[in-house]
Amino acid sequence: MTLIDHLPVLAVIVPLLAAPLCVLIDRARPAWLIALAASWLSFGAAILLLLQVTQSGTISYHLGGWPPPWGIEYRIDLLSAYVLLIVTAIAAVVMVFAWHSVESEIPSERIARFYAALLLAFAGLAGITTTGDAFNVFVFLEISSLASYAIISMGRDRRALNAAFQYLMMGTIGATFILIGIGFLYMMTGTLNMQDLAALLPEVSDTRTVRAGFAFLTVGIGLKLALFPLHLWLPNAYAYAPSTVTAFLAATATKVAVYALLRVLLDVFGVEFSLQAMPLNLILMVLGLVGIVSASLVAVFQDDIKRMLAYSSVAQIGYMVLGIGLANTTGVTAAILHVFNHALMKGALFLALGAIAYRLGTATLRDFAGLGRRMPWTMAAIVIGGLSLIGVPPTAGFISKWYLVLGTLEQGLWPVTLLVLFGSLLALIYVWKLVEAAYFKPAPANAPAVAEAPLSMLIPVWLLVGANVYFGIHTDISVGVASQAATQLMGAGG
Predict the structure, then answer these.
(1) CB 312 within 8 A of CB 299
(2) Average pLDDT, the chain
């Protein structure tokens, strides 16, 4: 076997092995270089995996040579390769940005351990997307969650500890629900392999045990997903975590949870059971719409910009969940597409905020006064990221909202279409608040002179901003893969 044959496991094991190496070396610069190398190697593996899957179909990798369902299988299909590419790409870009940002926000004696925890969070998220084993999903989820609690708590604001504790409480409940759900399914089928589960569940789908397992899994993943009204941990976690952590988690963690929801609902249980026999499509649509409107309204009234964007994330998760709830291929395409596009826009916005926090120490609406002239490149990135968030052409955000609108119109749901557009209008209001402060308000008289962010921070920000525009114009890759993955999922389930 060549190295290429081991790519599914390499994408996960490289950051997993790099994490303890950071702790052993225990020096800031070498730890950062190890994290940087590990993330870029994983990114390279993810690119090769996506190319391999598009050319030759699903990859099944047997750990230790044991065939499934006895052995553990890593299964890479189009959807998992797509989400793995998002996670590794964001990790690679964020690690470049991290050097200056982490140095300014984390005490020097903790930096090496910070990178170790960040790599563990990354490895856990990559593992969730690659494994074909239901119990392994739980194991990787716990690896990423435990590491996330640690890196959130390292924020310089004392409230970061409280935010991490709140996330820990909610995350533990979510993980327990997921484990109970997996246990119920194992009880009825005697297997943990997802493909095996998908084949065996239809025979026992009328039992109360399977229905209870389905409910536990949906609520557990909903908690990890920050689905309204289970989102209460997210605003504080994003607002008080170090800038690097906020950018990484906002662009990856909830996206991987959406992937897990798609995998469980459409692949394991199937469309007929999940979205037709059970009334989940209606529940997801209602919760998605309430999340879009309520979280966007709260975002409008925020002064802390990280908090504003955190509530905006809850609203954007609403769009993805709404797409799944529409229960048609166009809606699911929109959800998968928005996973990709939202990672690009939120990654760009939170990294740009990190650059502002690096120069000013904080990022409130008051700090933005006159910033358009003092940090022109950083503010330009925020404006373009904001336009993508609203869904203005030719940005990536427009493409996913366009597909979502098409999905609602296919179902004849005009009121839902109007609410989606209303959500974009609310996004316009809170993004405009930033633009108005930065470009139309003078800097305070006593404001210190502020230099533009360092190049090592600006390059990652603009890579993501460029991707927002590129994938808004050239939609072949993103839309092509998303629609193909959606067709596979809807076909597998129904």
Answers:
(1) yes
(2) 84
Taking the C-alpha atoms of residue 310 and residue 313, their distance in angstroms, rounded to an integer, is: 5
How many CA atoms lie less than 13 Å away from 427 in the CB half-sphere?
A: 27
Please give the Cα distance from 374 to 385 (Å, whole number). Answer: 19
**HSE (CB half, 13 Å, CA atoms) of 166?**
18
Place of tokens 């999922």: 489
Check if the beta carbon of residue 40 is closer than 8 Å to that of residue 92: yes
Burial of 203 (0-12, 13-18, 19+ CB in 10 A): exposed
- pLDDT higher than threshold 70 for residue 492: no
Best CA proximity match to 9, nearest among 178, 182, 132, 193: 132
Burial-class residue 222 by CB neighbours within 10 Å (0-12, 13-18, 19+). buried
Contact predicate 133/197, CB 8 Å: no
Contacts of 313 (CB under 8 A, 6+ apart): 226, 234, 238, 250, 254, 342, 346
β-partners of residue 62 are 73
DSSP character at residue 6: G
* In contact, 129 and 88? CB cutoff 8 Å: no
Six token digits for residue 26: 């225990």
Whether the CB-CB separation of 347 and 247 falls below 8 Å is answered with yes
Q: How would you class 1 by CB atoms within 10 Å of its CB: exposed for 0-12, middle for 13-18, buried for 19 or more?
A: exposed
Whether omega for the bond prior to residue 394 falls within 30 degrees of 0, making it cis, is yes
| Nearest residue to 226 (alpha-carbon basis) of 341, 315, 334, 353 | 315
Cα 349 to Cα 195: distance, rounded to the nearest angstrom: 38
Q: Is residue 73 classed as helix, strand or coil in its secondary structure? A: strand
**Which tens digits make up the pLDDT trace of 263-318?**
888 888 887 877 777 788 888 888 889 998 888 888 888 888 888 888 988 898 98
- Residues 356, 363 contacting (CB under 8 angstroms): yes
**pTM (two decimals):** 0.89
Residue 393 neighbours by CB under 8 Å, 6+ apart: 472
Distance CA 190, CA 453 (A): 55
Separation between Cα atoms, residue 437 and residue 142, nearest integer Å: 41
